[in-house]
Design brief:
Blueprint (H helix, E strand, L loop, with lengths): L2 H26 L11 E2 L2 E2 L1 H10 L6 H14 L3 H12 L4 H11 L2 H8 L4 H14 L6 H5 L2 H8 L7 H13 L3 H4 L6 H10 L2 H15 L5 H6 L16 H20 L15 H5 L2 H13 L3 H13 L1
Antiparallel strand pairs: 1-2
Helix pairs in contact: 1-3, 2-3, 2-4, 3-4, 6-7, 7-10, 9-10, 10-13, 12-13, 13-15, 15-18, 17-18
Length: 314
């Protein structure tokens, strides 16, 4: 091991040791037992042992204090490797739901913000899941929505069908049940439509749920119609798709078509690009052909009925 690397490990260990002592003193006011001695291998300090000790000292400190120490550790350093270890300890502990409660009560959403920028996908995924859980409480909506644009920006660039992308889509779908949040993500609708044509079944499920939220809101109709839509979008009406995804896609098209027809005079062709979703509804022959093939090949009577209903309205 080089001298510089050796010094780096020792320095990191000292930082963690000092931070741990400070956290314990602050949270227990000097009454809690000290953290066990650092495990050393030569001159190297094992950071995993330090953070692991923070989780396993339940005999000396209460659970809330243990979790607070981990949170404090995350706050005190920007080192991504320490964040990953501490974050895994925090979210993989048996008290996982309790961990969220501590974060909410402590007002530590800022911690999650730092984790969203962490270079490790596994850490970002857990931060997104934490935001999703926190957003269940109405009082946290305003705090969570400040990260919505960043979440959208990151989600559309994450590796296709990856766990971190699915976590981002799940959060966006959850938040966009509220109309206020729908208008915050309009710039990403084109990217969501693109992902709908190339994603896995689970990816499509989240995106269809999100778009279905949009389509129920008349004020979102224009934002949907002006979005760029791949010509392959209508391939969602395919017998190989899951029944749930097909039914959601049918509902999506029914809603958009309904609002489109009601305001046809307002939506004139010169306002839309040739690649926009508008022309799928303005010139529905290709879509209708795809629907007829689906009706002929799909045996489920519910799907057949819904297809015929949509065809009658296009």
């Amino acid at each position: 091991m080089g001298r510089i690397q050796e010094v780096g490990w020792v320095t990191a260990g000292l930082v963690i040791w000092a931070g741990t002592c400070y956290c314990i003193h602050k949270l227990t006011k000097g009454r809690a037992q000290g953290v066990r001695k650092l495990s050393r291998n030569g001159s190297r300090v094992k950071m995993e042992t330090v953070v692991g000790d923070l989780v396993n000292e339940e005999e000396s400190l209460a659970r809330a204090v243990e979790l607070e120490k981990l949170i404090c550790m995350i706050e005190m350093t920007e080192d991504p490797s320490i964040h990953e270890i501490a974050n895994n300890a925090l979210y993989n502990s048996p008290d996982y739901p309790f961990s969220h409660e501590v974060i909410r009560n402590a007002g530590r959403i800022s911690i999650i913000e730092s984790l969203l920028n962490n270079p490790y996908p596994s850490v970002r995924q857990k931060a997104l899941n934490a935001l999703n859980n926190i957003s269940v409480a109405a009082e946290n909506h305003r705090k969570v929505k400040t990260y919505l644009n960043q979440v959208c920006e990151d989600t559309v660039t994450y590796p296709l069908n990856s766990n971190v992308q699915l976590a981002g889509l799940r959060l966006i779908k959850h938040l966009t049940v509220i109309s206020e949040y729908q208008h915050m993500v309009t710039n990403y609708i084109s990217e969501f439509l693109r992902l709908l044509t190339v994603g896995s079944g689970e990816t499509k499920d989240h995106i269809l749920g999100m778009l279905l939220n949009f389509s129920k809101n008349p004020s979102m109709t224009k934002d949907l119609l002006i979005a760029n839509a791949p010509t392959s979008l209508i391939n969602i009406f395919n017998k190989k798709e899951t029944k749930e995804n097909i039914l959601n896609a049918l509902s999506l098209f029914e809603n958009i078509n309904y609002h489109f027809k009601r305001r046809a005079k307002v939506f004139t062709q010169d306002k839309f690009s040739k690649n926009s979703l508008y022309f799928i509804f303005q010139r529905p022959k290709a879509c209708a052909k795809k629907l007829r093939v689906l009706a002929a090949e799909y045996s489920d009577p519910e799907v057949k009925e819904r297809v015929e209903l949509l065809l009658s309205k296009l």
